[in-house]
Amino acid sequence: MHPIVHHPVVKRLSELFDDTDVTTRLASTLTSLSPHSEELCLRIDAVICTSDSIRSNVSTANDKSLSLGWLSVDNNRALTITPKQVASLESPVPSSCNPQPGHAGGPETPQSIPVDKSSPRHKAVGGLRPKKPSISAVTEDIDSDNDADAESCLRPANVRIEPSIRQLQSDTRFPQRKRRANDSATPTLQPSSIDKLISGIWRQVHSPVTLSVTFPDRSPEFSLRTGVSQEVFRAINGLCKKYYDQNRSSRALEMVVQAYWVECYEARIASIRLEHPSFTNAEARMTALKEACSTLGWQEKELRNRMAIWRGYKEIKDSGGWASLIFAGTGVYRFCKYRIGFDNGLTTRLRSIASSLEVAADTLHPGWRDILRVVSQSGPCRYSGHPHEWVTVDTGPAWPLSTTYAHLLLPDGFNYRFMDDCVIDQNVFGTTDPRRIPGVDPEVCQICKEKQSDDVISNHCTCFLVLFGGIRYPPPIQLYSTGSGKNNGVIARCEFERGTAIAEFVGLITNGIDGLDVMMGGTPERPYQIFQGHTGNFTRFINHSCQPNSQFQKFYWCGVERILVVSRGVPAGSEITVDYSDSYWKKLKKNCLCGEPSCRFTRQVEPS
Ligand SMILES: C[S@@+](CC[C@H](N)C(=O)[O-])C[C@H]1O[C@@H](n2cnc3c(N)ncnc32)[C@H](O)[C@@H]1O
């Protein structure tokens, strides 16, 4: 990467505007430049304008630009500006070079998209935000606070319909990046060591790591001199994964044996006291230690030091179960060595996630218990099937999802089929996908105009990744019992940073459903509904909050509209919530239980 990217001024700008993309965009722009003979400079300009001008993204003749300074790209130093230069640089900003919202302008913006000036609600924000094209929008960003507007734009202009009961709409704005609090503000709380240990366990259990106790075959032979073809590179990647997994498995095996060793050691001490009734406890311990040292070939002190760490492994396993130890990341060694936070509620925290962790381990890594064969502790999986077919509870074993709806007395019980992609209701739409936008080339991204494809090799568009950070698979979430009248909800096991996609809203693509929960999609001319009554993904279980930490957002991929759940900043361990909208609640005979001080629907229904 070019050194200028790390220049303190660039870093400061990035911090100031809370935009980590500044460096990335600068780096990619510099890389894209053809070789040059003259000294290159990075000029840092500012524009003085009215807030109206920013909101509407239209520059006026009154806007004044001034140059603050520049950095020499070639020798990475800051240059000052002479008064003469300042005079020549200060000028009204011509519209043609007005930076577009969400972009710093310049060559890294592949395509300038016309800004819809008629909509003052399209507020220009941080670098991740795409501009809304006038016809084929890339993301819908209709202000959620204005329900009437949001609804009217989803229905034909000449038709007045009473909204179907309990419609959800992707009617909120893209999560705007938070301004970082200035230095004088209250310092933010850093996650504790326990938080880090626990989030490491959840990350690992939701990673594609394959724990296996078998050894891989002999490695293939490669020659770099003959070049690296796609096949060879794929094989090398496979090898990396294989040995990474193997290393993880060996580490897990090692910790399992060591935790078990502590149990055996205590049991051996008890046996020695039975064999030698005259021995004190200390003598029995010494005897057991000597026996161990003679086999291990270690000094007593060496063994005592290691034992302290092994005791930590055992404590983790005793509270969080074997899964917590097996899926603990490499940090667990340091954690046990220095016993960071052991006395500060670790046991309680691990105990409360033990069964949820087992659900994730059993359903996502069904072979994980094989590792326990080494100490004859393996047993059958307790939880089988889809990871979201279990409702986790803090206080005990998880419940099968269907049993949590027994109170509804449904004639055929609660049956929900989990699937990863939407299915089109052929009775309504035949073979046509109503989400497809007519007249749009499905192979071309509407933002960057690059080729878009589901095939990683042919795809050249990175807009989704840049905007939403890519959808994590498997999603680090679980269904959980809220323990309130809300019944089930969705809990984030890992953090979802603000602006990242949590999942696509998946269900049956249909139309004409009335009186049931549906998500409205499409346009007034081509409406469709996403129905999650019988089939879909976990987004079906996301509850409402009047102060939600997530929102629905439209995105277009390969010419097809997709509705996403996007994080507004979801910390690990918190419930994922969205705002169902006023129109949804108007039709629901229930009080909202979100518990927010700003709750809008606490007193919808009078107590009987
Ligand atoms: C899409 S479902 C969400 C999952 C649901 N909690 C469950 O257990 O199946 C929507 C229903 O959940 C309940 N719900 C969601 N958020 C709620 C809230 N904040 N207060 C009360 N009930 C809520 C309402 O009954 C609502 O109709």
Overview of the molecule:
With 608 residues, the chain is of the alpha/beta class. The chain is 31% helix and 14% strand. It has helices at residues 8-16, 21-32, 51-56, 83-89, 147-152, 193-205, 230-275, 281-296, 300-326, 331-338, 342-364, 426-429, 463-468, 582-586, and strands spanning 41-48, 64-72, 77-79, 91-92, 167-169, 390-393, 396-400, 417-418, 423-424, 477-481, 488-492, 501-504, 508-510, 518-522, 527-531, 535-536, 543-544, 550-557, 560-567, 577-578. The strands form 6 sheets. It has a 5-stranded mixed beta sheet. Strands 1, 2, 3 and 4 form a 4-stranded antiparallel beta sheet that branches. Strands 7-6-10-11 form a 4-stranded mixed beta sheet, covered by helices on one side. Bound molecules: S-adenosylmethionine. This is SET domain-containing protein. Residues 120-132 have a biased composition (Basic residues). Residues 87-133, 168-190 are annotated as: Disordered.
Main attributes of the structure:
608 residues; alpha/beta; 5-stranded mixed β-sheet; 4-stranded antiparallel β-sheet; 14 helices; binds S-adenosylmethionine; SET_dom; SET domain-containing protein; Class_V-like_SAM-MTase
